[in-house]
Design brief:
The protein is an alpha+beta fold. Helices cover about 20% and strands about 35% of the residues. Strands 3, 4, 5, 6, 7, 8, 9 and 10 form an eight-stranded antiparallel β-sheet that branches. A two-stranded antiparallel ribbon has the order 1-2.
């Protein structure tokens, strides 16, 4: 999704999460370290664009810069991400976190969902010249579940942007997927984004 502040567009795109994270002491009841990192979305697995292919950057360890709207503050430094774009004004981001235990993953997923449920209010508090509205598109039955949200922003100078967000979990791994372009809720590719989210969470195993 895109949020424009003072006439400058800040693009919050989707990044894929990588598996590079610092090795720390793990509680005795925690799951053992993964033998391989979780996989990330491929460009062709994103909602299809009518006039362009999707392109992707590398999987990168650490938080994305800039942080994604609304969920960015909750992402730990152990996150990994991947950014996607088209030849037009559409972008995406996937961020994945491998937590040290399932309990911590449940807590992180809950915190991310809470932030998204309050996203429109937070955007308007941070950007007084932005009006934001949002929708909840429900739960997806994949692994431990995923939830999909939409946020529409309108700036005082007339800019209108639509973003879709999802949070999903598989065991101790949590992923966030974000897609955005200019438009309104009518332009949101919700069905395609739901399919993308299912694919993203399935690939965490």
């Amino acid at each position: 999704m895109y949020v424009r502040a003072r006439g400058v567009r800040t693009v919050a795109t989707a990044l894929a999460a990588g598996a590079a994270f610092a090795m720390t002491a793990v509680p005795a009841n925690a799951a053992p370290p993964r033998s391989a990192p979780p996989a990330f979305l491929e460009p062709a697995e994103l909602p299809p664009h009518p006039s362009s292919d999707w392109y992707a950057g590398p999987v990168t360890a650490g938080q994305p810069d800039p942080l994604p709207m609304c969920v960015g503050d909750a992402l730990p430094s152990t996150a990994s991400h991947r950014r996607y774009w088209t030849e037009y004004d559409t972008g995406a981001l996937q961020v994945t976190v491998v937590e040290r235990s399932t309990r911590h993953a449940v807590q992180l997923a809950g915190l991310l969902r809470k932030d998204l449920a309050d996203c429109a209010r937070e955007v308007m508090e941070r950007y007084p010249d932005i009006t934001a509205t949002q929708k909840y598109y429900g739960r997806l039955d994949v692994e431990e579940g995923a939830h999909v949200y939409g946020v529409h922003t309108v700036a005082e100078w007339g800019a209108s942007d639509i973003g879709l967000f999802s949070v999903g979990r598989d065991g101790r791994t949590v992923t966030v997927v974000q897609w955005g372009q200019m438009g309104t809720f009518e332009h949101a590719q919700v069905a395609d984004f739901r399919d993308t989210t299912v694919t993203a969470v399935d690939k965490l195993s």
